[in-house]
Write a structure and sequence with these properties.
The structure is a homodimer. By secondary structure, the first copy, chain A, is an alpha/beta fold. Chain A has helices at about 45-50, 60-65, 70-75, 80-85, 95-105, 155-165, 180-205, 225-235, 250-260, 280-285, 295-305, 340, 345-355, 355-385, 385-395; strands at about 5-10, 15-20, 25-30, 30-35, 55-60, 90, 130-135, 140, 150, 165-170, 210-215, 240-245, 270-275, 290-295, 305-310, 315-320. In chain A, the strands form four sheets. The first copy, chain A, has an eight-stranded parallel barrel, surrounded by four helices.
C-alpha cells in the first residue's frame, strides 16, 4: 500500500471517507478491522468474513511469533496463504502486549483506566508483570510457557516481513493510564527512538516496499506529549499513522487525545486508532478523523452472548435473558446476516445455554455484520454530507 | 415416510441400496446419520451440512425434552424450523440414555463392553445411576440440574410428535453388555410391551401418519433373545426397524447380533443400527444389511483432533502430532471438502494447539465429508455389484 485518498469532508466534523490500496485489494474507510489475533477471527472461516463484508483483518505478531512462529508461516507462503484470507491484512507489533502483559496486568486496567483491556478478559489485578523494558527493546515472559523472548524494533519488522501482511506496525511502548507524566514522557521518547530504528530496518529489508509501515503516536493523556509525538511520528514518512497507548481515564479523555493528535498528522495519510471501537465509540472517533480502527469487542461480546442490536442499551442484547426463551423473531428485524435470515432468538438462546459451539459462530457472524453494515452506512453518510444527521439518528 | 425401496442386492453379501422417502426429501441408503443431540450438529450450520452432503440428521428427545422443551419447539414451528434444517430428520427416543445414564454409567462401559459409549466421553466408572426403570417407564435424574423426570412409551411418542421429526423411535430399554441373560430377557420383554404401548399411542395421535415410527429390537448379545425380538418387533407394522441395545463384548459379537437379527426382519423395511458406525465398521454393518446408522464418533473425533484420512491406522490422523507442524498438504489429497480445499495440515494443527474455535468446525467438516463420501462410494459399489471389491480396497 502506497496509496490513500481521503475524499470528502463535511463541515463541523472531521469525518472523512477514503480508499486505501493494498496488494490484496482496497479498503474503503472509515473501516472496522476485525481481530484475528492467532491467525483466525474466532469461530469464523475466511468465507464467512467475505460474506459478512469484512474488508480487513488484523493478526498479532507477538502471538504468532510465539506460536506457530513466523519462520513456519513464511515457509508455508505467508500469513495470507496460511490462514486462507485473500483480502487486506495487518499485523500488530506486540506493543500492546508490552502494556497488557506488563503494567496493565500489574495495575488491573485497560487502555482507558475505567475499562478493561480491549483484548481478552479483565486482567487479574495484582498479577506480576510479564514484561521488562529497556532501551534496546522488550523482554517478555511468554504467556504460553513462561519462556523468555526479546522483541526489538528491528526484530518486530523482521517478524512482520516474514508474516507478509499488507500493513505492519512499529514496535512501541504502550503505557498505562496510571503511569505519571514523567514515565509517559520517557516511554514516548523511547517509542520515538524505536520508530526511527524500525524505519531504518524497514528501509533495509523492504526495498520493494510491498508492505506499508505505520508508525505509532504515544504520549498518554498528556496534551503536550501527544502533540510532540504526533508531529514527530507524522514527520517520518510512514505510510500511515496509528494512535496507540493510554487513552486516559474516560471516553472523554480519549476524545481529547484524538482532538490533540489528529489535526497535527499529515492529511494524506490514513489514521488508525489502535484497539478501540465499540459501537458507541464509532461516531465519536470517526467524527474526529479516524480512518481505521480495530477492536475485539464485537467478536468477544458475541462469544459472551452480548449481541449487537439497535435500540438496546449500549446496543447490547443479552441473548441468555429468559425473556428471549420463546422469542420467534430474528435478533434484528431486517438484518441480512446469515444468522438473522435463518434463526430465532429462541434458538440462539438455546444454543448458548446448551453451550453448543454453533452459538459462538452465529453470534459472531451477527455482531461483525452489524459493525460492518454500520460502517457502510457511515461511509455513505459522509459521502452525502449527512454524517452528523446519521450520528443523531443512531446516538440520539 | 411410508415408502422404502431396497433396490439391489449382490451375491455373497447382504449389502443393499434403497431410497427412503420422507416429508423433507429422500435419503439414499445405506446412509450415515449425523448426530445433532441438542438440535445442532456440533459447530456446523445447516448450510455446512448441505454443502457436505449430509442427507439426514438425528436429534435426541431426552435432551430436547429437558432443554428447551418440546412445547417450546412446537410453538416455534417444530424442530426443522427451530434449527433451520430442511432435510430429513430423526429423533431418538431417550432409550439410549436409559443405558448411558444408568447401567453404562455405573459399570463404566459402552454398548460394546470393550468400547466407551458412542455418545459423549468415557463414562465415569462407578458413578451412581441416574435412572430407575419400572414397568410403566423410566425415571431420570436430569443430567442438567438433578430434577426428576419420567418418560413412558406414550410420553415419548407425544414428545416426538411435538418435535415433529420425519422419523421417530419407540422408547426401549437399552441394556448393558454386562447384564446377564435373565435381566436382558426381562428388559427385552419390557421393551416389547413398551413397543406395543408406543404403537397404540402413535396410532391415536398420528392419524395422518406424517411421521414414520421405527420399533427397536433388543436382546443383548444372546441369540435366542435377538431372534425372538426381531420376530416380535418385525411383526408389529412399524415403518422401520432399529437395532439397539447391548452389542456384546467385541465387534465380532456385534456382527453376530446383526447376523441373527437382520434375516428375520421384514425385507421391505429400512433397518437402522443405533449409535454404531465408525469408519472401520461401515463395510461390516452395511455388508450385513444395515440401511441406516447414526454415530457421534466422526464429529466427536473431529473435536479431539482425530481426523479421518485413508491410509492412516484406523483412518485416524492425529493433527496435533508434531510431524504435521510444517506440513503444507491438505488433510487428504484430492478431498473436495471446504477444509481440504483451503487449509494445510500445519494451519489446522496451529488452530488446535491455539484452541481456536475454528479448529473444531474445520475438522468436523472434513470428518463428516469423509463419511458422507464413503457412503456415496458404498452405494455406487452396491449398485454396480462390486461392494465386496470396494470393501477389499478399503479394508485390505
Amino acid at each position: 500500500m502506497k496509496s490513500f485518498r481521503a475524499l470528502h469532508q463535511e463541515k463541523n466534523t472531521s469525518a472523512r471517507v477514503g480508499v486505501l490500496q493494498t496488494p490484496h485489494g482496497i479498503v474503503e474507510t472509515p473501516a472496522f478491522i476485525a481481530v484475528a489475533t492467532q491467525a483466525s477471527v474466532k469461530s469464523l472461516t475466511p468465507r464467512d468474513l467475505e460474506e459478512i463484508g469484512v474488508q480487513i483483518i488484523i493478526a498479532n505478531s507477538y502471538h504468532l511469533h510465539l506460536r506457530p512462529g513466523e519462520d513456519l508461516i513464511f515457509e508455508l507462503g505467508g500469513l495470507h496463504k496460511f490462514m486462507g484470507w485473500s483480502g487486506p491484512l495487518m499485523t500488530d507489533s506486540g506493543g500492546f502486549q508490552v502494556f497488557s502483559l506488563g503494567a496493565g496486568m500489574e495495575q488491573g486496567v485497560g487502555k482507558i483506566a475505567s475499562i478493561f483491556p480491549e483484548e481478552g478478559r479483565p486482567l487479574p489485578r495484582g498479577e506480576k508483570s510479564r514484561v521488562r523494558i529497556d532501551e534496546d527493546g522488550v523482554e517478555f515472559r511468554s504467556h504460553l510457557d513462561g519462556s523468555i523472548l526479546r522483541l526489538t524494533p528491528e526484530k518486530v519488522i523482521e517478524i512482520q516481513a516474514k508474516l507478509g501482511a499488507d500493513i505492519i506496525l512499529t514496535l512501541d511502548e504502550c503505557t498505562s493510564p496510571l503511569h505519571d507524566y514523567e514515565y509517559t514522557k520517557e516511554a514516548m521518547g523511547r517509542t520515538h527512538r524505536w520508530a526511527l530504528r524500525a524505519f531504518k530496518k524497514y528501509a533495509e529489508i523492504q526495498r520493494d516496499s510491498k508492505q506499508a509501515l505505520f508508525g505509532i503516536v504515544q504520549g498518554g493523556a498528556y496534551r503536550d506529549l501527544r502533540e510532540e509525538s504526533a508531529k514527530f511520528i507524522g514527520s517520518l514518512g510512514f505510510d500511515g499513522i496509528a494512535i496507540g497507548g493510554s487513552l486516559g481515564r474516560s471516553k472523554r479523555e480519549m476524545h481529547d487525545v484524538l482532538e490533540w493528535t489528529i489535526p497535527l498528522l499529515p492529511e494524506e495519510k490514513p489514521r488508525h486508532l489502535l484497539g478501540i471501537g465499540e459501537v458507541e465509540d464509532v461516531f465519536e472517533i470517526v467524527g474526529r478523523g479516524v480512518d481505521l480502527f480495530d477492536c475485539a469487542a464485537p467478536t468477544r461480546m458475541a462469544r459472551n452472548g452480548a449481541l449487537l442490536v439497535k435500540g438496546e442499551e449500549k446496543f447490547r442484547l443479552n441473548i441468555c435473558n429468559s425473556r428471549y426463551k420463546d422469542d420467534p423473531r430474528p435478533l434484528e428485524e431486517g438484518c441480512k446476516c446469515y444468522t438473522c435470515r435463518n434463526f430465532s432468538r429462541a434458538y440462539l438462546r438455546h444454543l448458548f445455554l446448551a453451550k453448543e459451539l454453533l452459538a459462538y459462530k452465529l453470534a459472531t457472524i451477527h455482531n461483525l455484520h452489524f459493525v460492518v453494515s454500520l460502517m457502510k452506512e457511515v461511509r455513505e453518510a459522509i459521502r452525502d454530507r449527512r454524517f452528523l444527521e446519521l450520528k443523531e439518528r443512531w446516538m440520539g
